[in-house]
Amino acid sequence: MRSKEEEQDYRYFTEPDLVPTEIAEEWIEQIKAAMPEFRDQKIIRYQKEYDLPEYDARVLTSSKKMADLFEKTADLCKKPKDVSNWIMVEGMRILNEKGIEPDDIITQPDKLSKLVLMVEQGKINRTVAKEVFKKVFLENADPEDYVKEHNLGLISDEYMLRSLAETVLNENPRSVSDYKKGKTKALGFLVGQTMKAAKGKADPVLVNKIIKEFLDRQH
Each residue of 92-119: b (16+ CB within 10 Å) or e? Predict the structure, then answer.
């Protein structure tokens, strides 16, 4: 009934038929190098290497599939914060809506990287990008092909946008009058109406510039 505490209590003795073994330091280092990165290490690295908040790093590393998608995409497009935002906001929303587990993500890094760069380069606006992201995320669609096929590219034809803006201004004299009285919110409304007329495909920066030019000219 006594408790066993020390080695001698268990009556251990050396196995006489086993020779002493020396393990090479190089082999130990090879084993260490082949070991996968632990999640805690990855969280710290994401904060330092990609300048992400701890919360984002924890969410992204909650699944190996999601962490791999983030890292490979960020390495391709060199936009880690944008990639994190797309996965954290739109990606997590879609996963929750569809009841999909992160490990079932089929999106390939090259497709997501293309989408991030298309937004960055002004080829599509964020409203359109959300629609395209859903296709990329759920079906691994090629964003460039999808945008071309559905004619979703950004309208940057200044003549066309000026024509639309002029029509919007003529149809909304009250908002024009409000702007002239110093109500700057009217500008946002008029820009929004022009974007609506362009079915959300206009370059918002260019639309804002055109509307403001028209309004300032009428002062």
Answer: eeebeeeeeebeebebebebbbbbbbbb
Q: What is the pLDDT of residue 159?
A: 80
- Concatenate the DSSP letters of all residues of 82-123 into one string: HHHHIIIIIIHHHHHHHT--GGG----HHHHHHHHHHHHTTS
Cα 66 from Cα 115, distance rounded (Å): 17
Rounded Cα–Cα distance for residues 83 and 81 (Å) = 5
- Could you tell me if 107 and 199 lie in one domain? no
Provide the whole-model pTM. Answer: 0.67
Query: Using 50, 70 and 90 to split pLDDT, how confident is the model at 47?
Result: very high
pLDDT digits (tens, 9 = 90+) for 94-144: 999 999 999 999 999 999 999 999 999 888 888 889 999 999 999 999 999
DSSP 8-state symbol, 153: S
Domain boundary among 107, 128, 149: 149
| Residue 27 covered by a domain | no
- pLDDT of 13: 67
Token pair in block for residue 44: 């710290």
List Cβ neighbours of 205 (8 Å cut-off, separation of 6 or more).
none
Say yes or no: 91 and 144 in one domain: yes
- Write down the pLDDT at residue 181: 84
17 occurs within a structural domain: no
Q: Encoding tokens for residue 87?
A: 């996965």
Please tell me whether residues 55 and 129 are part of one structural domain. Answer: yes
Residue 66 near residue 60, CB atoms below 8 Å: yes
